[in-house]
Amino acid sequence: MKKFLSILFTLTLFITSQSDAQFKDYVVKGGIQYNQLMPFSEYKAAYSYTARAYLAFELSRLLAIEIGGGFGQYKTEDDFNTYSTVTSDKNYVKSDIIPIDARLRVSPGNSKNWNPYFYGGIGLMKYVTKELPVNSNVPDYFEKASGWTAFIPLGIGTEVRMSNNIMLDISGGVSYPFTDLLNNFVLGEWEDASANLSLGLTFAGSDDCDTDLDKDGLTKCREEQLGTNPNIADTDGDGLLDGEEVNTYMTNPLNRDTDGDTLSDGDEVKRHNTNPLNKDTDNDGLMDNEEVNTYLTIPTDSDTDDDGLTDGDEVKVHRTDPKVADTDLGTIGDGVEVGRGTNPLDPSDDLPPAPVEEPIKVGQVITLEGINFETNSSDISSYAEDVLERAYGYMRDNPDLEVEISGHTDSRGSRNHNMGLSERRAESVKAWFVAKGISPSRITTVGYGPDQPVDSNDTEEGRFKNRRIDFKRTK
To answer: What is the number of H-type helices and E-type strands within the chain?
Structure first.
């Protein structure tokens, strides 16, 4: 045991721990183990061991089948039976054992330096008793036992990276055989089981070209072609795995800022949703980093404030704020101002110029739309007053203006009646202006009855239009 541990320790000192063991992605790997046994039987445990060799075949990154076999000694001291002759020799029972087993190994971990696992299996064991106590009258000792038995191995362990293809294997477990004859003595239902503590070396027998030790999505050979580090998942430290850069985003895994906009590829993809291959993702004339760090605009929206101007034009051409639709806080957006030629930085030009009203010419007739009357009525409606207010404002602002107000009717009723009705309608409108302060001398009235229709009197709509008031400037 001590000699074996010394050899193992010496090997460890000569093997660098900086390279990558093939925990997974191997074709086949094998190893040797020394197992220190602790027998569980009717007798007191004595020095027992097995030496075991094995081959492991990977089924998946989680599972492997391990086939192994070995040779060892199952040794106990008979402290149960009594002897007639007392000697200085201890009453040992020694049996040679040859275990052969198949195990399913489960490796749930994904560490670069450790590969924890647990195992369970089934096997066959050849046992042959080689030594029995002397001077014994125990009936079981009259004949040395031998035979085959099934057994179940269970345990846990871990592999520790030592070099590119060599691993230190440490494990512990139990072995339960289906016989009580390993110590050549049967007592009740007791079975001769054992616990074990194992130490060994595992050798990976694969071509590591297709391995991915840093779990970045690229094989070792592919990383060597690209120049990336097969031991570091993110060679350029930009926040993206090398495999993501090569296979998904098409960025340079050796350059943390592929497009040169000073934002790392990882920040562009994960924080800003920008294109790590285009320094101006939204093509607005500003680089992504300028939008993110300087102007605080949205690097994926060419017009952050939706004013019709790109962020780049606002900053570089018009000097407007790309985050505010109306930089001068007037009433017109920056895009409209630029389009119509006003200054988006000057609020005073935001209001449109007042329309220039052309003066009413002498003799010009204007029909006041909305001054209509019910049949056989000269009463002014509230809606008509709203229309007259605008006419009143014009007469108030032009004190030299004089007008003729003419009333009109439709063709229903007698002409004489309609002539009087139209005159009353004109007088009703004049009275309204006079009541508002307009001098009566500026207004004359006349009634034309049905003589000047503007539409057909055959329809209700036409007759309604004919019941109206016209203004005509006389001075």
So the answer is: 10, 13
User: CB-based contacts of 96: which residues, under 8 Å, 6+ apart?
Assistant: 71, 72, 73, 74, 127, 128, 130
DSSP 224-245: HHHT--TT-SSTT-SSS-HHII
Residues ≥6 apart with Cβ < 8 Å to 366: 360, 470, 471, 472
Q: Which CATH architecture has domain 365-473?
A: 2-Layer Sandwich (3.30)
Q: Residue 44: beta bridge partners?
A: 77
Q: Which two tokens stand for residue 60?
A: 């998946």
Per-chain mean pLDDT for the chain:
85
Cβ neighbours of residue 325 closer than 8 Å, sequence gap 6 or more: 305, 306, 307, 333, 334, 335
The CATH number of the domain covering residues in 2-210: 2.40.160.20
**How would residue 9 be classed by pLDDT, with cut points 50, 70 and 90?**
very low
pLDDT digits (tens, 9 = 90+) for 10-62: 444 433 333 344 555 566 889 999 999 999 988 899 999 999 999 999 888 78
Measured CA to CA, the distance from residue 311 to residue 299 in angstroms comes to 9
Query: Degrees (nearest 5) of the Cα angle 403, 406, 408?
Result: 160
| Burial annotation 225-252 (CB, 10 A radius, 16+ → b, else e) | ebebbbeebbbbebbbbbbbbbeebebb
With contact defined as beta carbons under 8 Å apart, do 134 and 89 qualify?
Answer: yes
Only one residue has tokens 């031998």, namely 146
SS3 390: helix
Report the SS3 class of residue 469. strand
62 secondary structure, DSSP code: S
pLDDT at 120 over 50: yes
pLDDT digits (tens, 9 = 90+) for 260-298: 999 999 999 999 999 999 999 999 999 999 999 999 999
Asked whether residue 100 carries a pLDDT value surpassing 70, the answer given is yes
For residue 367, CA distances in Å to 16, 399, 439, 454, 468 come to: 106, 21, 21, 10, 8
- The pTM (predicted TM-score) of the whole model is 0.44
d(CA 17, CA 439): 112
Rounded to whole angstroms, the Cα distance separating 103 from 89 reads 40
Q: Parse the chain into domains and list their residue ranges.
A: 2-210, 212-276, 280-356, 365-473
Instruction: Please report, for residues 88, 125, 170, 358, the alpha-carbon distance to residue 67 in angstroms, rounded to integers and kept in the order given.
Output: 43, 14, 17, 108
